[in-house]
Amino acid sequence: MKKIQSLSGMMDLFKGSDISNSAENIFKVEKALKDIFISYNFSEIRTPALEETDLFKRSAGDISDIVNKEIYTFLDRNNKSISLRPEGTAGVVRSIIEKKQDSTTNKFWYIGPMWRYERPQKGRFRQFSQAGIEILGYEEGNSEYELMSLICNIINKLSIKKPTIKINHLGNPKTKKEYCDALVSYLRPYSNELSETELERLNKNPLKILDSKNENTQKILANGPSLQEFLPNENIKLINSLKDTFSEFCSIEIDYALVRGLDYYSGFVFEAVSDELGAQDAFLGGGRYDVLTEKLGGKELPAIGMAIGIERLSNISSLDNTEDNIVSFITITSNLEPKAFKIAHHLRSLNENINLDMNLSNSSLKSKLRRANKIGASHALIIGDEEIKNETILVKYLDDELTEQELVSYDDMYKFYKSL
User: Fold this and answer.
1) Containing H/E element for 151?
2) Pair (206, 294) in one structural domain
3) Is the residue at 3 inside a domain?
4) Is 28 inside a domain boundary?
5) What's 101's domain CATH number?
6) Domain range holding 105?
7) Helices and strands of the chain, counted as H and E runs
8) Is the dihedral of CA 176, 182, 185, 190 positive or negative?
9) Is 21 within 8 Å of 315 (Cβ atoms)?
10) H or E segment at 345?
11) Of the four listed, 204, 218, 245, 356, which is most buried by Cβ atoms within 10 Å?
């Protein structure tokens, strides 16, 4: 019978799996991020993996690559168009509007799977894990500093290799329009040299042309109008202040050509890149999206957020390889299973810093000890007929330099385990 394999670009993650990105490192990165988010007193939010397709069309924009090329969309049994979420912000905003929280302040974090139909490559998968931060209800200013602090904390605590934070400001709606008009006027004479996609962007969202990967287009843009010329002084002052405040902790650059790929971004934008990632060098990015809540049918609500690619982050992080503290519990007769599980249950309640591995096989003691060494257990607790009769247990040290063992009472064993 033919074996069923996973779909292209979708990974199985478990300890010991043979994948280019270590599953164990991905799990460690997720845990480290959760700890950082909680330390900033952000609250967790979980939204559905499936949403109405219109949510992403209205938020990301009809000409975005996400909507046109990458989104997984299908009809359900009621012929409603639904999609797997390609990003997290739209679902969070939809949720707060639906729950009538769009007139209050919130600080949320989330971690979960997203889906985009792309060509799988290093650091890019069709199902991928993404963490996100959304700060809702706060005007531009303090929240930008909080977010930059958070990003620097992530970079430093995860020991990210060769990181740089790029920041920019897209201006207010008036200055943004003035710059876009000037950009369109400048590029019109070059229409014959632009691709169909770039011409479409020129008509619908000119800022996205700044993000073009075409070398000839970038040469044309080099002599065009600069966003910096149109920005109000307070916008330039903000990004300069952010750079000055946090350059002591992270490498920060002001990049006036930086734009974000989604329609809803406005004001302050940023991304973090690493030379270790190659062409797809961004592992984190985001910005302010003050107009999105209204665009999705809610009240006016200022907001800023970011998304973090877990797989990419795991490739460039250097987390401490701290080993789990494991103790192996071994029985040498099947008649003792109920009693053994009762003892193991009590042990687990005494010390949450220890992972107690209950050996469930009916193999020999030698085989069970071999497994205990393989999983890195520091000790083996061994119980058999004589031990159960005398209410004792054999504590065997499994350290490479120690081969000693000791027969102790239950009470002494409980004290010993609690002290580990």
Assistant:
1) helix 142-157
2) no
3) no
4) yes
5) 3.30.930.10
6) 23-171+239-316
7) 15, 16
8) negative
9) yes
10) helix 337-350
11) 356
The answer to whether residue 205 sits within a structural domain is yes
Q: Which amino acid is at 179?
A: Y
- What is the C-alpha separation between 117 and 388, in angstroms, rounded? 59
pLDDT tens-digit readout, 293-325 = 999 999 999 999 999 999 999 989 988 766 779
- Of 306, 308, 266, residue with least CA distance to 288: 266
Q: What is the pTM of this model?
A: 0.86
State how beta strands 81-84 and 73-75 pair: antiparallel
Residue 33 · residue 44 · CB < 8 Å: no
Output the six-digit token pair for 283.
């592992």
At which residue do the structure tokens 């949720």 appear?
95
The neighbouring-strand residues paired with 273 are 164, 282
| 388 exposure class (CB count in 10 Å sphere: 0-12, 13-18, 19+) | middle
Residue 83 exposed, middle or buried by CB count within 10 Å (0-12, 13-18, 19+)? buried
Could you tell me the CATH number of the domain that includes residue 379? Answer: 3.40.50.800
Contact 284, 313 (CB under 8 A): yes
pLDDT tens-digit readout, 176-205: 888 888 988 898 888 888 888 888 888 877
Cβ atoms within 10 Å, residue 27: 15
**Same domain assignment for residues 139 and 243:** yes
Tell me, yes or no, whether 13 lies in a domain: no
132 neighbors 88 (Cβ within 8 angstroms): yes
